[in-house]
Amino acid sequence: MHKMLKEIYEQPSVIKRCYEDNIEIIRLITKNIKDRNINNIIFVARGSSDNAATFGRYIIEILSGIPAGLAAPSVASLYKKNLQLEKTCVIGVSQSGQSEDICSFLDMAKANGAMTIAITNNPRSKLSLIAEYKLNMNVGIEEAVAATKSFTAEVVLLELFAAFLAEDDKLVFELSNIESIIEDALNQEGLIKENIERFRYMNECFILGRGVSFPIALEFALKIQETSYVRAKGFSTSDFRHGPLAMIDKNIPVFIVAPVDETIEDNIEIAERLTKEGIDIVTFSDSKKLNEKACKYVDIRKDLNKFIKPLFAVPLVQLFSYYLCVLKGNDPDKPRHLSKVTITK
User: Fold this and answer.
1) What span, in angstroms and rounded, lies between the C-alpha atoms of 230 and 223?
2) β-strands 254-257, 296-299 pairing
3) Are 321 and 199 in contact (CB under 8 A)?
4) Domains of the chain listed by start with CATH number
5) pTM of the predicted protein model
6) Is the pLDDT of residue 47 over 80?
7) Among residues 6, 289, 328, 340, which one is catalytic?
8) pLDDT digits over 111-126, tens only?
9) Which residues form the SIS domain (predicted)?
10) CA-CA distance, 319 to 287, in Å (whole number)?
11) Would you call 340 a catalytic residue per the annotation?
12) 3-state secondary structure 312-341
């Protein structure tokens, strides 16, 4: 079994452990954020962790009302600039905790009055040692180059973080069922394998999502890029209309990650427009109306909290990416030109 598939299937148990290991420290951190009157949250990350941070930005703003954004790491690492970060919480997100630019930014933030948090899979990493507070994913060593279980851990931790900030006890409790939620998603493996043959010769695609599902679309695109070498481009469904729509072509399929929430009508509208142009659409959704417009679709559980549905979609897009890679004859554990730890400065 490839390491990537093995790690996808480890997720129910390791993500449950991640939740249990971090719930009390997250409770403490979010209390301290309120006690210190923190009014701004900034993420610093790269790669899959940057996609997780984008999810964190959305979920924190939507649930808690605290403004959140993404930092440009090179401001600290290359330009050597200091930012005014009083009343700001800066969260560094990195599987390895070793990326120099992420560490440089967190170090600068700490020196300029920010509360600092590290989310890593290595509690003894440089990033963890810099940070005031540490969240350890504790998902075990991730050997596959393509991140799977670490990405899922990051989005679960950030949703739990947002739920505590918002004092949403119901969501905190619902997240405690993450093991069975991921197991249910993985049970769709057979359907995904059946759907994959159609895309054997795909060399380009668009992947759309909006709101809290947009970062999942970005991660889906990244997984396809790094394992299948397909030019997969991830866009917000709304941004897709602002220029990229001009690139559509009957030979370029469009994947839409769209659990039912406030964004569903926008996703249905773009699907209708694309089908009129003869574009093949693949949907990951619990909307019957949207799925009916697709040439292939994968169901998302309808009964889940709208903020947990994107977490259900994560293993689905990971499995799709894995089986597409294998179908194309590639080794998902040895993507060309890539290594597990990327050191950027």
Assistant:
1) 10
2) unpaired
3) no
4) 3-181 (3.40.50.10490), 188-327 (3.40.50.10490)
5) 0.96
6) yes
7) 340
8) 999 999 999 999 999 9
9) 29-171, 195-335
10) 21
11) yes
12) HHHHHHHHHHHHHHHHCCCCCCCCCCCCCC
